Amino acid sequence: MPGAITKLMDLIVSGAALTEVLDTLARTVEKASPGTVCSILLLDEDRLLHGAAPSLPLSFWQPIDGATIGPSVGSCGTAAYTRETVIVTDIASDPLWDDFRELALSAGFRACWSVPIIDGSQRVLGTFALYYREVRAPSQDDLGQMTRWVNMAEVAISRVRFVAALRGAAAQDALTGLMNRTEALRVLTDLTRTATAGTAVLFVDLDQFKFVNDTLGHAAGDQYLTEVARRLTACARDTDAVARIGGDEFLLICPDVTSPEHAQRFAHEIVEVLRQSLPVQGTTVSLSVSVGIEMHLPGTLLRAEDLIANADLAMYAAKRSGRNSVAVYDARLRAEAADRMSLEADLSGALTRGELFCAYQPVVDMSDGRLIGVETLARWTSDARGDVPPTTFIAAAEDNGQIGAVGEFVLRTACAQMAQWRATDPAWADVALAVNVSPRQLADPAFLTLVRQVLDETDVPVHQLWLEITEGAVVPNPSTARTTVTQLREWGVHIAIDDFGTGFSSLAQLRDLPADVLKIDRSFVTDLGHDPAAAGIIQAILTLARTLHLEVTAEGIETDGERQILMALGCRYGQGFLWSHPLRPEQLDRRAGSSWQPATSTRASRPQPERPAPLPSSAITPRRPHPRQAGCPVPGG
Question: What is the pTM assigned to this prediction?
Fold first, then answer.
């Protein structure tokens, strides 16, 4: 007996299957009691399923596998039902065996003793039975021995299931119930070794998911992730594996995929499903999704870790190409990733090294050239890289979370510069200061505090600040954006929707967003000279703006012909190279009251302003707030 127990425990700890453990137990019983045939059945709700019966003929146990328990269902079905030991000394005459008598007798069995296997929580796990080929009643020793065997069966079943549960928990994501990264790696590793056809690895990332956690709380974020997991599982085939491998990162492992095109079609289906809005804690959330794809073909030597890493790189390529995009990995992405990491590392030190600065582009009244505002534009002249395009470093800052620090620098620098201009030229009191705001800043609960603090420190009147929000910025969480923008506007800050017409905002969102100005994207202006539809689109935007009581500013104007068409359509305010490229602060010092006339050149080169000298410390020294003035003309209003 001690040796048998040791062997059973070794099997359990080693992770052996329950059928193997029970088969070993049954053989041990039969060896210890010659002439005994042991059977162990497992209870699944109200049905008894085959567990182990090494000496029972298949013709006997197979017909009763899955039998429903009841008060007269042989020895085992009755024992499981009544939760009591059932001793049948003569199967030929006992009514409990009426439905199975011929089956047992034809197999040569005359007696059957059965004991329910009950665990510590009083749950019936199954039954332990001993069959004999002669009429036989148990002795007290027999009953005592049976009790010991039953206890061992209970330990075996409970421990094996417990170990299996632990192993399952170790392989499972606790929140969503999907497999976790470790299990996904195991599954993918197995496929790379055994698959005879292509395997697609899809890396799915929820864009701007942090907004949900930051604005609605982590409980809402968990609810969103759980629903995403449900939708992904519904999309997947039975042969696909779905895993959650990070906070908002999911992985699909799809065997038997014949080509990247096949994988792309499936990825686009996923995008369509996940882009649909979800109700979360009383509000509606709609996030975009990026999907990266890597293919594994038989004979390829890539490890599972490499496949996932490549799919991750492809996902970032998809993210950079726009919302709800799909990209397939190729080798150049790895080199681009290395360049991007180097860029992000340089950017992290650019602020402390004084490499970032602000340039300012005039916004004018197109009828007379009057300066009504300046748009603040972040610029980076790197000691190592030279002039870095804003589209490059702003995207990098958005990706790695540095956009908050960059945005704060721009806001502080712009307001300090406006304070300096106001101190030297009273005409600057009538010029609006436009500063771009990123989606992450809008989602930051501290943003409102930052705006108030900077305005108080620099003594810039609230009404003189014009915050430009890219149209797409209001999409991920419209209710939060609306709350933030509403509060800013109540303070007197003017709000503009930048790049209007290029984003995915609905008219309902635009109707509800408390904005003052729409800024027509430069792409529509550029098309005026050669695309008749462009004028119609701009006319529609102007009509929409009038309906919603919004003013309009056109961006990217580079020819006098564009200016004249825009004015004829009813657009009064504009900015672009026709009047000026972005300028250093000192180039604007005495220009507030002057008239800006169109330049003679058109579509000229776009010079990069030189890095200005640092603002004097007095420009950012807090001063006593004064009563806010009113009446500053907001560009477009």
Answer: 0.57
